[in-house]
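In this supplementary section we document a worked example of the pipeline. Step one takes a protein sequence of length 164 as its only input; no multiple sequence alignment statistics are reported here. Step two produces a three-dimensional model, which step three serialises into structure tokens for compact storage. The input and output of this example are shown verbatim.
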Amino acid sequence: MRKTLATAATLGLATLGMLVPAGAAQADASAAAPAARTCSDNYGDATIGYMYAYWNDQCEGYLGRSSGVDSDWGNSTGGFQGDDENRATSLLNKGSSGLAVAFYRLTGYSGGHICLTQQEKYASTLVDGGDDYGFDRFSTGYVADNRISSHRWMDKDDCSKFMR
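The serialised model returned by step three reads:
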């Protein structure tokens, strides 16, 4: 009798599995998947007093963060290290001092700069800056996307070039 009940239960479950389409279960799973985060989301979660850099646009692909200066994003010290140099595509400034963050093309704060003020909060992409070539550019004219090698905080009045 137990074998008969077990067989009937197994057949019943198998039949039920054929009646419920697999797509319905997959649709429920995708509906529950979280939406992609944006710079606005990350800004809300960011720690006050830090600037952040991301390797992809919309502040995705976290590279690092820093509350101080970093003269070389490619060395082994500071908030950015190793292969972080020349990889940033979006940036976030949640500073508390009112200072802008100046990003530089070369190490040692050289090669031209581009600034992000605290009021701007973030640059969701450096790729589509709206100029003739579609890129945000350093004060020296070089494209800023994937070319940041150092940063420091400075008064926005000392910045000659800002992100769009």
